[in-house]
Design a protein that fits this description.
This protein is mostly helical. It has one domain (1-148). The protein has six helices and no strands. It has helices at 3-29, 31-58, 63-73, 75-86, 93-122, 126-148. α1 packs across α5 (93-122). The longest helix is centred in the C-terminal third of the chain and has 30 residues, at 93-122. Belongs to the ZIP transporter (TC 2.A.5) family.
């Protein structure tokens, strides 16, 4: 098996840990914020997990082993959520949320921009670049509108 498969599993576990942190901290803020965060992460995770599964298959894992390994990385999310809940201060959730949500939001923004900006810079067709920028702005607008309701 190629080392890239194991590196992908490690990265996926860390990614799922931060997702668990974000979900638990969001529910500490309110039920609404928790559900919105959970939905955003689920929408992100579906294509992400399919891509990770394909990476594992290319690395030499058979389908059943790849599926089991992908499922095992989900434990990172449970550990992240547990950590966020255990890190809750006796003074209340405010101190926990004060560092967890900015940390995870910054990580998500970094990953999104590291993936999007290089593609925009390499794009030869200005129409495709404009479409990507408009879709990125649409996503930001949806997040703002959901946060206002």
């Amino acid at each position: 098996l190629q080392i890239s498969g194991y590196l992908n599993l490690l990265a996926n576990t860390i990614d799922n840990f931060t997702h668990g942190l974000a979900v638990a901290a969001s529910f500490l803020v309110s039920r609404k914020v928790g559900f919105l965060t959970t939905m955003a992460i689920l929408l992100h995770e579906i294509p992400h997990e399919v891509g990770d599964f394909a990476i594992l298959l290319r690395a030499g894992f058979d389908r059943w082993s790849a599926a089991k390994m992908q499922l095992s990385t989900a434990l990172g999310g449970i550990l992240g959520a547990s950590f966020a809940i255990c890190a809750q201060s006796p003074k209340g959730a405010g101190e926990t949320v004060a560092w967890i949500l900015p940390f995870t939001a910054g990580g998500f923004l970094y990953i999104a921009l590291v993936n999007v900006v290089p593609d925009l810079l390499e794009e030869k067709n200005p129409w495709n670049s404009l479409q990507q920028i408009l879709l990125l702005c649409t996503g930001i607008t949806v997040m703002v509108l959901l946060s206002l309701t």
